[in-house]
Design brief:
Elements (H helix, E strand, L loop, with lengths): L5 H7 L1 E2 L16 E2 L10 E4 L2 E4 H10 L7 E4 L12 E4 L1 H7 L3 H6 L15 E3 L5 E3 H20 L11 H5 L1
Antiparallel strand pairs: 1-2, 3-4, 5-6, 7-8
């Protein structure tokens, strides 16, 4: 009895009539994985005695091995998609910045809320890695020092109001 090849078993679990991607740079429809999926929604495929992610297998079959230090990114943003045209080998940073999560949204911000550019000269890195605007931080520190100076030099109200000598005589 002839067993089907891994490529034939893989092809039998792919729905090539998937929906069209809403992303501009993804040509054609998504090829959705109809086989097993893991808890995160990625397709899984058993080949050569181990379970691999279906999109990684599809990329390797179309383009050869994934280069060291790179990961496969779904340009269409669908985890179940295995269309080779929708898959790219990119660094982890590029993969994160292409996504729609809060990290990518913050990285896309080029100016602080006051309109100052986040550039080399005007950006301070906080201990937790976030960016701070140097101009806004300096302005805030100047305002705090001015307020402290005003509070230090403010007139003090006496506990007992002073009376003039005429009020005492009366």
């Amino acid at each position: 009895m002839d067993w089907p090849t891994p490529a034939a078993r893989f092809a039998a679990k792919v729905n090539t009539a998937g929906p069209w991607s809403l992303r501009r740079d993804c040509p054609g429809p998504c090829h959705l994985w109809d086989g097993a999926e893991n808890e995160k929604g990625y397709g899984t495929f058993y080949v050569a005695g181990r379970t691999v992610k279906a999109h990684r297998y599809a990329y390797e079959q179309a383009n050869g091995p994934i280069p060291t230090g790179l990961e496969v990114d779904h340009r269409c943003r669908r985890r179940a998609c295995v269309a080779p045209a929708h898959l790219d080998a990119v660094t982890h940073r590029v993969n994160i910045l292409r996504s729609t999560n809060h990290v990518a949204a913050r990285a896309a911000v080029t100016h602080c809320p006051a309109g100052h550019a986040y550039d080399q000269a005007n950006t301070i890195r906080a201990k937790n890695g976030t960016r701070k605007c140097r101009a806004c931080k300096n302005a805030q520190a100047r305002a705090a020092r001015a307020l402290a100076r005003e509070n230090r030099l403010a007139p003090v109200k006496h506990i007992r109001p002073r009376t003039t000598h005429l009020e005492r005589a009366a």
